[in-house]
Structure prediction request, 381 residues.
Amino acid sequence: MIKNYQFNLPLSLYLRQEFNKRRNMGSRDRKRTREDIFSYFRIGKNYPELGIAERVAIGSFLCNTNRSPESDYILNTHSPFLPEDMSASLAVKLEKTKEKFPHFDLGNIFSFASLVSTQINIDSFLQSFLKQPKLWIRVRQEYKDAVLTELTEKKYSFEISTELSNAISLINSTPVHELKSYEKGFFEIQDINSQRCLEDIELHEGDRWWDACAGSGGKSLALLDKQPKLKIIVSDLRESSLLNLKNRMKKVSQRIEGIHQLDLSSGQEAVPGLFEGILADVPCSGSGTWARSPEILSSFSETSLIEKYIPLQRKIVQNLTKALKPKKYLIYITCSVFRSENEENIRHFEDNFGLKCLSAAYYEGSELGADTMYRAILSKS
Prediction:
């Protein structure tokens, strides 16, 4: 599976297709195989001289905490020098690995460290790639007791955030889609830092907001849960995302003012009228989420950042600024850790688009098992 992977699909989708071809594999076999393949990619560009089996063994040792017959076989067959204590701390595991392979370097996991903002704790960020992030949900307050009751009855392991009382983390593979409370719309799957980006946004009844890169509508739903009488317009380039958005809105009986399929990087006519607020969760490298998609560590190039994402982000914000009322707010969001997509872009917006940055911050996810996000609040002069 590793040898045949061409990086033309997300790794999770590729593995799903491969497993469908192998009906004789049981659920446990699929789960362990998936974990080992993800672990292979989590060590990034370390040990290119080693074969696939050895790299899988090292990745499995570093990234997993529980022993299994599969892990014992892999380690004993391909890396018998590694200790069998899978529950040891990551620091101890890295030390034991370096005793045999001295050239292990966290910088070889993420080879773009020079591009990362100085505001990011780079050591924690690099180590986060050796851990599976958590699955986060945002519970609607009125249904919190019902959701907690069902999670407890299902014996799912979960933790309530100490920072956001309606944010709950679970093991990434938890089948929350199968819960009755999910079917009823009692909660949304949403990373905690995506929730934090909107937590302190001031909303007023009757204000017009434009969720310009809405995707499947997670942030629009969060805004409406905060202020149900907000007038929200949504747009996205992808028809499939907008269809998903419609279904999510219908499930929770939320009403939006309009849905538009727009290419905001072109001169295409934008949504008519002016807005009190515009949410611009722009397309980006996604580098703050790569712990969920570690295959990108081996396939991303700086060229795509310079030639694709930065010009796209600047064009989108330039077009959106025209629809913003004076003295009102554009919320710029990325899931990137790169300066060029964040701080440097903000300076460009201020110098060229008549915007002023009121606040900007990274929401780091490395210690939380979450994504790292960047948010800036900009005001139009």
